[in-house]
Amino acid sequence: MTELTERAVASRVPSLADERLQVIARRDPVTVREGTSLAECIDRIRETGTGDSVFVTDAEGKLCGVLTERDIFARLVGHDVDLGQPVERLMNAHPWTLHLDQLVRHAIDLMQTGRYRNVPLVDDADHLVGVIRPVDILKYLAEAFPEELLNLPPRPHQRMKSTEGA
Questions:
Q1: Range of 32's domain?
Q2: Domain count across the chain
């Protein structure tokens, strides 16, 4: 049986963070091609229901930029903006990216310090191969601690005075 102390669990986390990103299940990104209107980008985000960013690629699938929910709220809502203009006008043309051979800790750092919710994953030719979100990392970590998570009380700080059951 695995030791369930906080120290024992914490000692396992660093080694998990040193795994390559390829061990984490990644999502298919919401993508559009260059020249797509802002209105179409907003529709694509709305259609998916889970994505809050749209990634812009060229005809070869190389990442050109990203339009995030934050960009939409900051630059579009409450402003008189032509939604027929191409996404290139408002997208971030130089988003941070990670490669599948980089460490999980790099994604965690980028999400923490750069406030990224969707980190694009690219191959060596800058082709977009996926996106990773904080929930994907949490699922990966949770899978590494099934016994610890399944044995949590309904209220984490709950202390039982006596054992229950038979």
A1: 6-150
A2: 1
Type of residue numbered 112: Q
Q: Is the dihedral of CA 102, 18, 6, 144 positive or negative?
A: positive
**What are the tens digits of pLDDT across the range 122-148?**
999 999 999 999 999 988 888 877 665
Extended beta strands in the chain, E state:
31-33, 53-57, 63-68, 98-99, 119-122, 128-132
Q: Is residue 1 part of a domain?
A: no
0.90 cut: is pTM over it?
no
Q: What is the CATH number of the domain that holds 34?
A: 3.10.580.10
Q: Dihedral, CA atoms, 11, 17, 23, 26, nearest 10 degrees?
A: 130
